[in-house]
Amino acid sequence: MANVPKIGKAIYKGPSIVKEILYGIALGIAVGGLWKMHHWNNQRRTKEFYDLLEKGEISVVAEDE
């Protein structure tokens, strides 16, 4: 039994500060990009609405029947 390998115990070292910062930065950039795309989409829709309104293709006044 002298050749039996010793099994090391897993030692918890705690969170890696550098890893946590990098994860936070990556998550912030990803969520910020999605938020920015959402706002660009709203801006595009608003611009299209006012362009159509200016051309007279749509109206915000309800037509009488």
UniProtKB/TrEMBL annotation:
Key word Signal present in the record? no
Per the record, the similarity remark reads: Belongs to the cytochrome c oxidase subunit 5C family.
- Residue ranges crossing the lipid bilayer per the database entry: 21-37
Q: Which InterPro entries match?
A: COX5C
User: What is the protein's major site of localization?
Assistant: mitochondrion
What are the alphabetically sorted keywords of the record?
Membrane, Mitochondrion, Mitochondrion inner membrane, Transmembrane, Transmembrane helix
Compartment(s): Mitochondrion inner membrane
Name of this chain's protein: Cytochrome c oxidase subunit 5C
The species this protein was found in: Camelina sativa (False flax)
Q: Which domain of life is it from?
A: Eukaryota
Question: What high-level taxonomic lineage is stated for the organism?
Answer: Eukaryota, Viridiplantae, Streptophyta, Embryophyta, Tracheophyta
Main function: This protein is one of the nuclear-coded polypeptide chains of cytochrome c oxidase, the terminal oxidase in mitochondrial electron transport.
